[in-house]
Structure to design on (1455 residues):
């Protein structure tokens, strides 16, 4: 852009141009020297602001219009560089300059004095053609500000001016921006802090990303991918690029393409090794792929990143450095949603849980203990943004920890965890809960039901611990408490016996029945230890009635019959069990899927019966 | 029956104390009191005195005592929160900005260095569980910040908050302006679940586990996370756990954590939050320390009780609303009773327990009956003690700045309004009796007060009059006492009576109670007689007349000159009796000890004042009996005396006159320069002689006379003649002679003394008029002195001769003595 020289060699104009250029030169020199001096930047901003104020003391005249536009452009960019967020002051600066320039050129927007009308007038004015570059630059800044303020109609209207075809769809904004061709002629006499043509890339990237996040949240992953790809094609900081790649990966995960998601997550980590969301999403992708070790390793890496108090390394300066970037003009909430990463405590839980799931018991136990300690202490948690993996209720964490600790024979700690649940939850359990499966569930009743389940599970674990420590009678008492608690829950409504339903209420029913069954067969096993065969058989029979699909219930029942020398009955039951084994196995798998993690291991652990005895029994019956 | 003891006055100069400004907290036996100024007073409740006054840089809004750290936190308006580390005696551990002692009270000035949170927007706070929680008011929302307090090992507190929470205001329609003008501050408390053990430093309210879980969630209970409970002026009661892991979990990932949970909305400013135990179990031991109830009290009288509904399917939080009298300014809780102030009264209510589930709706009684304790204007209070019977002792600060100890007795279940009939009757009877007693006391006090007022007014008048009289110059007689003597007849007996005219020339009122004391005295004795006259009330310009006889009843004779002293006296006897003085009113009156004495004038009464002239022609008014007595006495001695007496009585008058004149009268003369008389008496018109007679005997009877005759009070005849002479000396000076003659020596002597004293007065008057003083004939004076000396010697010689020549011819001696006497009495002109 060849800016027309001022109409007259006004010494004031010349002096002001020199002042502007000096500020810009100092600014660029500071950037080139990689000096990150906040004070110096502030001084330069103040000088620029002072220069603009001096100009505004004079009435608007044409020879000074170009300089005023450039100074305003430079000042807004310098302010945005310092504030890293859009403020009303920035919009006010642009608006006032625009009005003065239009007044200097005697350009009247007509009856409409809105900002959009002013821009329409300015962008179409022939008298401003010679200052088109800087006018477009300012328009780009105005569009960015409106975009952050969610003023979509104004943004559309503004960039509509640049195109020859009308658009009404907000999604076509990118088309408008693509067709926008701001003049790339730099001013020779009046220097800019950023070439106006670069504004287009910043605007384009910010709008594309914003729209991509919105599409991703709506579930339109394909559109989101396209938009993110458009955003990734432009310039931006490494952290912003990492966010874009992360979002692309998320879209692929949602589409069921974890391999492709992994690729994008890795690209995100290459861009920004401190991108916590990328680590987490990687672990999710590995989980989808069944790669447990990789999943856990990713979580460990994320833990290291979150534990490191050092901030991310600054982006390299030099050629291509922009004082402003697209991420400065994206809604903070949108930005945060695109960078969801678990907090420290949540990450700790994920590690503990995954280790528990993958049978890495020792590591899981340590993680659970560390997590519980952190939870009790109450760490200073950043609560400003949501989390992709919120913690479950504390009672569930305690039960999972107890179950894990039992696996590694840390019985005292396990018992303490169970005791916590029992003591602090028992007071809120009513004497009876009647659940109508045909009606909507009150969240409060759900909470009460959960309390019953948790306390019952705690009693169950305590009974297990006592049984393992040969405290038979105490174990029987604990099993009894578990059963008595579960008996408070009564289900009513239609299809009470329909086991094919997989609604959440049926899952609750499955959990209740599994707990009841485990308690009964556990108590049966203890009676067997005491030699009370009659009670043992009775409890085993009850357990089998509660949950016929439970394989351990069958084993205990068989064992009880065998010890009572009722071998014919045992044989008959065995035959019956064999004939329906496939169906019961399916049922059992269905039930297991409903169970919380803490009960998974409980029901899988085969210590209810003497394995040798069962093998012998089966051999005898099989023969 | 409530008993109130006033302990101290902590008024704020110039204005009362509002509820939002009054603050009172207790720390064992010390009360910290703030009265809306920048001062916090430390009051020792055992010794009943103020021990210290702590001055802060700004007005004190809120205070809180943290027992575990022995710290006092104080919020100052538009400044921040200050923290003071105190020892067990209440002394600052850290050296304050300045300390001084006035009257046994330490004055401690605190500087900004003690400010731990410098945030002008803070309007409330609570310090608990190692955390300092502050609340700030923004245009449309409330802000809460959490700071780390100073840890037990003395590490400094963090200056920046480690967590910030904001939530929007929820105002009922039309309440925005009320909130802007609201004087209420947020009420913040910490709530923790009770862990079964008694703690020496409980972290705020300790709730039963079931209630805690119902109110704040199971996660908070499992984590034993303290929960901050806040009641705000817009009516919101919110809560949030200090442990962020206790926050309710979001239902979806990507959802923000709800950091603040709305527990209840009172739709009126929350003024009080408390936790207490309503249900007392039999044999309850340590379990009695946990509260089973949370209560929120609003300014407009809404009381919300939160309890846990045990063994209930579904919602176990039971919010129950009640209504009490409004407006509620402050409140305290003791057991199941809440004591609250409505400014016009102190009331108490008993919070009911949850009714049985079956009739929970039927027995709803939203309006709680309040018992009145008839104590007004309480702006802040705290419970000091509570007895097993439910009697409560409160320390309260009134809006007038009075620190009071209120002992409130509480009947079983609390005294309720809506008393039974019998109780109402008794109560009314007691009230009426009380009213009667008070009325009687008031009337007595009123009369006593009126009496005192009158006494003071009288004393004022007395003092004013005394001041005026005593300060006046001697020449001014503001209270003028004039004496006139006159003859009168009492029971056919002539006697002299003095008339005293007392005139009040002052501007003060001579109140009733004044006494005029008149003292009669002579040269021989100061007081020969005295009279006292109680005076009536004499207004300015008024006068009164009093009469008293001369001579007194004790003596028929008078010695002249007679000095009459007048004194005004006011006795304080009445005041001494009224005010229980030890003075016995029956004691002899001593004017100089128990009253005010104002000496007035002194008057000299000489024989001239008492001389009774012949009313017709100035001739002698004889008292025949007197004269006859002498002659008869003489004739009795001689032979044929009785025949001579009869014959004398039958003699014609001329003969009698001549016969009386046969006893040669004694004469004395006084010569004075006529010029003196002319100057002073202005004798041009009347002549010197008549002027002198008129001067000596003022009155119409003696006008235009040169000679007068009359009687003395004793009945002695005296004749006084004034004539002008030319002195046969070298100067030929005009002289006026006053000749006094009388057959009685005593009368003659009195008259001579009277005339000479008058002349002395005349000479002084002459001198006072500015004229040239009369000159003494010194030569004559010297001659007189020399002659008097010789006369004196001769008198002594003649007396000696009389003693020696006893019974011999003493007539010669007598004649010589008489002649000496005549010469003594006729010194000639000495003054001219």
């Amino acid at each position: 852009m060849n800016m027309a020289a001022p109409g007259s060699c006004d010494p004031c104009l010349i002096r002001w141009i020199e002042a502007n250029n000096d500020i810009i030169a100092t600014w660029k020199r500071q950037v080139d020297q990689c000096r990150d001096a906040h004070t110096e930047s502030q001084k330069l901003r103040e000088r620029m602001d002072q220069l603009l104020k001096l100009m505004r003391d004079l009435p608007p005249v044409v020879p000074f219009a170009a300089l005023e536009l450039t100074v305003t452009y430079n000042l807004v960019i310098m302010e945005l560089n310092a504030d890293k967020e859009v403020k009303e002051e920035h919009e006010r600066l642009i608006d006032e300059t625009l009005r003065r320039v239009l007044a200097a050129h005697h350009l009247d927007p007509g009856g409409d004095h809105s900002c959009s009308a002013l821009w329409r007038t300015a962008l179409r004015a022939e008298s401003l053609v010679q200052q088109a570059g800087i006018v477009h630059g300012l328009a780009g800044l105005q569009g960015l500000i409106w975009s952050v303020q969610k003023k979509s109609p104004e943004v559309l209207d503004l960039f509509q001016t640049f195109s020859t075809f009308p658009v009404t769809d907000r999604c076509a904004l990118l088309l408008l921006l693509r067709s926008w061709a701001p003049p790339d002629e730099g001013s020779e006499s009046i220097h800019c802090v950023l070439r106006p043509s670069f504004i287009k890339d910043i605007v384009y990237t910010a709008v594309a990303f914003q729209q991509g996040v919105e599409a991703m949240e709506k579930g339109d992953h394909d559109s989101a991918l396209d938009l993110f790809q458009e955003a990734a094609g432009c310039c931006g900081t490494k952290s912003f690029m990492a966010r874009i790649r992360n979002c692309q990966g998320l879209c692929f995960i949602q589409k069921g393409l974890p391999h492709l998601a992994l690729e994008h997550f890795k690209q995100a980590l290459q861009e920004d090794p401190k991108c916590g969301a990328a680590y987490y999403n990687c672990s999710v992708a590995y989980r989808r792929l069944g790669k447990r070790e990789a999943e856990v390793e990713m979580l460990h890496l994320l833990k290291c990143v979150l534990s490191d108090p050092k901030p991310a390394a600054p982006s390299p300066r030099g050629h291509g450095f922009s004082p402003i970037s697209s991420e400065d003009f994206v809604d903070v909430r949108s930005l945060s949603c695109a960078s969801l990463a678990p907090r420290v405590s949540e990450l700790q839980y994920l590690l503990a849980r995954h280790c528990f799931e993958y049978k890495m018991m020792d590591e899981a136990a340590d993680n659970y203990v560390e997590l519980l300690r952190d939870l009790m202490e109450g760490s200073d948690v950043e609560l400003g943004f949501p989390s992709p993996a919120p913690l479950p209720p504390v009672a569930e964490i305690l039960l999972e920890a107890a179950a894990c600790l039992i696996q590694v024979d840390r019985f005292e700690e396990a018992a303490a965890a169970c005791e916590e649940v029992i003591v602090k939850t028992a007071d809120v359990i009513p004497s009876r809960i009647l659940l109508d499966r045909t009606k909507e569930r009150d969240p409060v009743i759900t909470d009460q039901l959960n309390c019953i389940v948790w306390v019952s599970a705690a009693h169950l674990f305590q009974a297990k611990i006592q049984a393992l420590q040969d405290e038979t009678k105490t174990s029987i008492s604990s099993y009894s408490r578990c059963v008595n608690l579960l008996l408070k829950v009564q289900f009513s409504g239609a299809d009470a016996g329909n086991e094919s339903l997989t609604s959440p209420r049926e899952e609750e029913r499955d959990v209740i029945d599994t707990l009841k069954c485990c308690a009964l067969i556990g108590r049966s096993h203890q009676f067997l230890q005491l030699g009370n065969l009659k009670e043992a058989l009775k409890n085993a029979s009850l357990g089998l009635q509660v949950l016929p699909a439970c394989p351990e219930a069958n084993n205990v029942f068989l064992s009880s019959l065998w010890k009572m020398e009722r071998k014919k009955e045992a044989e008959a039951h065995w035959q019956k069990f064999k004939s329906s084994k496939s169906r019961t196995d399916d049922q059992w798998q269905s039930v297991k899927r409903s169970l919380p993690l803490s009960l998974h291991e409980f029901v899988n652990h085969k210590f209810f019966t003497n394995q040798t005895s069962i093998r012998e029994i089966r051999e005898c019956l099989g023969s | 029956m409530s008993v109130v003891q006033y302990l101290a006055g902590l008024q704020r100069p110039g204005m009362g104390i509002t509820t939002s400004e009054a603050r009172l907290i207790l720390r064992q036996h010390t009360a910290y009191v703030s009265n809306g100024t920048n001062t916090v007073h430390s009051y020792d409740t055992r010794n009943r005195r103020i021990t210290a006054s702590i001055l802060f840089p700004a007005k004190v809004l809120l205070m809180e005592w943290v027992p575990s750290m022995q710290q006092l936190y104080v919020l100052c308006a538009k400044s921040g929160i200050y923290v003071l580390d105190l020892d067990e005696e209440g002394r600052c551990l850290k050296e304050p900005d300045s300390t001084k002692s006035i009257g046994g009270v330490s004055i401690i000035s605190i500087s900004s260095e003690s400010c731990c949170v410098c945030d002008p927007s803070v309007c409330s706070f609570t310090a608990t569980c190692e955390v300092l929680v502050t609340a700030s008011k923004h245009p449309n929302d409330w802000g809460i910040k959490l700071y780390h307090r100073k840890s037990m090992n003395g590490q400094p507190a963090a200056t920046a908050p480690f967590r910030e929470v904001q939530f929007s205001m929820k105002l009922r329609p039309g309440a925005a302006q009320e909130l802007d003008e609201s004087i209420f501050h947020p009420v913040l408390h910490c709530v923790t679940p009770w862990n079964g053990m008694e703690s020496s430093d409980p972290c705020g309210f300790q709730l039963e586990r079931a209630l805690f879980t119902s109110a704040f969630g199971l996660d908070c209970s499992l984590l034993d996370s303290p929960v901050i409970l806040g009641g705000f002026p817009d009516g919101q009661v919110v809560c949030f756990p200090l442990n962020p892991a206790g926050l309710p979990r979001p239902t979806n990932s990507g959802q923000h954590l709800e950091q603040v949970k709305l527990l209840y909305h009172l739709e009126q400013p929350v003024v009080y939050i408390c936790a207490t135990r309503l249900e007392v179990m039999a044999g309850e031991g340590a379990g009695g320390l946990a509260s089973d109830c949370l209560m929120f009290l609003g300014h407009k009288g809404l009381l919300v009780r939160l309890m846990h509904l045990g063994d209930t399917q579904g919602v176990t939080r039971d919010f129950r609303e009640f209504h009490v009298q409004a407006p509620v300014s402050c409140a305290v809780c003791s057991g199941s009773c809440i004591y609250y102030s409505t400014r016009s009264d102190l009331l108490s209510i008993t919070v009911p327990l949850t009714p049985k589930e079956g009739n929970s709706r039927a027995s709803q009684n939203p309006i709680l009956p309040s018992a009145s304790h008839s104590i007004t204007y309480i702006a802040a209070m705290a419970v000091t003690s509570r007895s097993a019977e439910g009697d409560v002792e409160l320390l309260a600060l009134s809006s007038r700045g009075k620190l009071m100890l209120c002992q409130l007795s509480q009947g079983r279940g609390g005294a309720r309004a809506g008393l039974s009939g019998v109780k109402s009757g008794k109560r009314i009877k007691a009230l009426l009796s009380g009213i009667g007693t008070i009325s009687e006391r008031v009337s007595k006090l009123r009369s006593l007060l009126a009496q005192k007022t009158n006494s003071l007014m009288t004393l004022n008048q007395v003092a004013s009059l005394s001041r005026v009289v005593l300060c006046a110059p001697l020449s001014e007689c503001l209270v003028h006492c004039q004496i006139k003597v006159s003859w009168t007849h009492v029971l056919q007996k002539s006697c002299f009576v003095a008339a005293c005219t007392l005139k009040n020339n002052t501007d003060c009122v001579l109140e009733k109670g004044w006494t005029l004391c008149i003292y009669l005295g002579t040269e021989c004795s100061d007081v020969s007689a005295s009279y006292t006259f109680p005076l009536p009330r004499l207004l300015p310009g008024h006068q009164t007349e009093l009469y008293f006889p001369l001579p007194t009843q004790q003596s028929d004779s008078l010695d002249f000159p007679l000095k009459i002293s007048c004194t005004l006296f006011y006795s304080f006897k009445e005041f001494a009796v009224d005010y229980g003085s030890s003075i016995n009113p029956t004691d002899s009156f001593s004017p100089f000890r128990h009253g005010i004495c104002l000496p007035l004038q002194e008057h000299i009464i000489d024989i001239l004042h008492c001389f009774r002239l012949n009313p017709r022609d100035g001739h002698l008014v004889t008292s025949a009996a007197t004269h006859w007595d002498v002659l008869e006495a003489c004739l009795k001695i001689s032979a044929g005396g009785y025949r001579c007496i009869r014959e004398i009585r039958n003699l014609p008058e001329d003969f009698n006159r001549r016969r009386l004149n046969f006893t040669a009268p004694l004469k004395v003369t006084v010569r004075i320069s006529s010029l003196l008389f002319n100057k002073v008496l202005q004798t041009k018109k009347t002549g010197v002689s008549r002027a002198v007679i008129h001067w000596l005997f003022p009155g119409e009877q003696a006008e235009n006379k040169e000679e007068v005759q009359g009687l003395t009070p004793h009945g002695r005849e005296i004749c006084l003649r004034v004539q002008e002479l030319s002195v046969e000396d070298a100067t030929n000076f005009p002289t006026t002679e006053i000749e006094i003659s009388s057959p009685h020596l005593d009368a003659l002597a009195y008259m001579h003394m009277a005339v000479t004293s008058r002349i002395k007065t005349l000479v002084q008057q002459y001198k006072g008029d500015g004229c040239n003083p009369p000159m003494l004939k010194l030569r004559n004076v010297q001659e007189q002195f020399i002659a008097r000396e010789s006369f004196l010697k001769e008198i002594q010689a003649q007396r000696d001769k009389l003693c020696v020549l006893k019974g011999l011819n003493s007539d010669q001696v007598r004649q010589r003595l008489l002649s000496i006497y005549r010469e003594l009495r006729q010194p000639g002109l000495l003054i001219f």
Notes: The mean pLDDT of chain B is 78. The first strand of chain B starts at residue 3 and ends at 9. Chain B has five domains: 20-168, 175-247+258-297, 479-605, 610-774, 775-832. DSSP finds 14 helices and 43 strands in chain B.
